[in-house]
TrEMBL record:
Organism: Gulo gulo
DH domain ranges (all copies): 76-166
Superkingdom of source: Eukaryota
MF terms (GO), sorted A to Z: guanyl-nucleotide exchange factor activity
Compositionally biased region (Polar residues): 1-25, 34-47
InterPro entries per the UniProt record, alphabetical: DBL_dom_sf, DH_dom, RAC1-GEF
Protein name per Swiss-Prot or TrEMBL: DH domain-containing protein
A Pfam family assignment: RhoGEF
PANTHER family documented for this protein: FERM DOMAIN CONTAINING PROTEIN, FERM, ARHGEF AND PLECKSTRIN DOMAIN-CONTAINING PROTEIN 1
Length: 196
């Protein structure tokens, strides 16, 4: 006897022998004859699309397996690359807030001296340019990995390390802009105190 606290006993119902429950939770008379191609609610059944329910008479070919692997990568490195791409996209959005919106607002209101604006915003443009390029390269490599190109013919897919190594070297050149960050913050704080 199956019992659920909210709805009471299901199998003890005198109507269950006469009614069945369809997929939407509605009652269907038990006299409805079910064909193999119809669901209990007498609608056309959907085909089985699960890869686990693949018909044994039609085993997958190697080409189908390779296509499936490209569409549904399971490699840990793929998910790491996907995370790098997502993080990079978020970081770029943050940089755009600073380089576009904040810069535009400060310029319109003439809220800070030119020297301070130059100190702050000159450091962000090289960062934005670098990270835009890095994101583009990462997304291109992910597209190869996911089989959205012909790279599998050349064997160029499922690699991300070369992109990361190249860009890590490029990040070293940005260090000078990052070192100016604390100088820019101090100048901004001094400017705020002076305007009070």
């Amino acid at each position: 006897n199956t019992s659920h606290p909210q709805i009471g006993s299901l199998t003890g119902s005198p109507h269950l022998s006469e009614l069945s429950i369809n997929s939407q939770g509605g009652a269907v008379p038990a006299s409805v004859i079910l064909s193999p191609n119809l669901s209990p609610d007498t609608k056309q059944a959907s085909p089985l699309v699960s890869p686990l329910l693949n018909d044994q008479a039609c085993p997958r070919t190697d080409d189908e397996e390779e296509g499936r692997r490209k569409r549904f990568p399971t490699d840990k490195a793929y998910f790491i690359a996907k995370e790098v791409s997502t993080t990079e996209r978020t970081y770029l959005k943050d940089l755009e807030v600073i380089t576009s919106w904040f810069q535009s607002a400060v310029s319109k209101e003439d809220a800070m001296p030119e020297a301070l604006k130059s100190l702050i915003f000159s450091n962000f443009e090289p960062l934005h340019k670098f990270h835009t390029s890095f994101l583009k390269e990462t997304e291109q490599r992910l597209a190869l990995w996911e089989g959205r190109s012909n790279a599998h013919i050349r064997g160029d897919y499922q690699r991300i390390g070369d992109v990361l190594l190249k860009n890590i070297q490029g990040m070293k050149q940005l260090a000078v802009h990052l070192w100016k960050h604390s100088e820019a913050l101090e100048a901004l704080e001094t400017g705020i105190r002076g305007s009070r």
